[in-house]
Specification:
The protein has eight helices and six strands. By secondary structure, the chain is an alpha+beta fold. It has three domains: 92 residues, Ribosomal Protein S5, domain 2 (2-Layer Sandwich), CATH 3.30.230; 41 residues, no CATH class; 140 residues.
Amino acid sequence: MMVSMTGFGRGEASTDGLRAEVEVRSVNSRYLEISSKLPRSLNTRENDLRELVRKKISRGKVNITCNLYREGVEALPLKINADAATAVYGLLTELQKNLGITGAITLEHILHFSEVLESDQTEGPDEAEWKVVRDALDAALDQLLAMRGNEGKQLSLDLQARMEALSEKVAQVERLSSERVPQERVRLQERVQQLLGKDFTVDQSRLELELALLADRLDVTEECVRLQSHIKFFLDAMEDHEPAGRRLNFLLQEMHREINTMGVKSNDAEISHIVVGVKEELERIREQIQNIE
């Protein structure tokens, strides 16, 4: 099943006076890129967060924003570092004198230094905080995946219709090509007779050789067969349970290769017109699959 790389998810969780809100956004990317904004007390959990995301997402640029709230100011796990506050005040006073700046040094100035307020935890990050954030993240990722899956279904329906239309175009080219080769043989024979005259004897073996070479140059059967095979593999990959974006992109490159060869070999206005249309459709499909995981 195809999955889009674009989506949004939001999750909430709460326990023991803690409440976490997590928002996850993702857009298309060649690889998996994860950026996160966690509460300061959980900065050491960034690797854990990335592992949770990697278990559920293989490609895309993922942005995660987490907010953590506590009920009541008394619940804040912070304490004042009086020594740090005194040192900061002394440094600001000395700087004020050196620069000749007048005015009072206020508490607001001192609180700009993160060293003044520090965590009141002695055993590293709070497990309770991480648990509630993790639960909210799981809920947000599930919502994100649901949205990516729904968009993937719509993309799948669109691509399937486009591929089926391409298959019909390729079959049409193959039919026109098979009809054209005998026509070109007759035309070449008539042209030779016109140029040499009726009384001139044509070397039949040489003529047959030239006709065989002409037929080989005009025949696009092999290209049509390979292109139909690529279309089949493309449709099969769309139904696979594994991420298919890279495989689809590779198959599309091979389709471009075959249709380009067909365009070079064809010497017919109707076939050339179909080839141009197929190229345009392949380009539209290429834009679509850039958003598939």
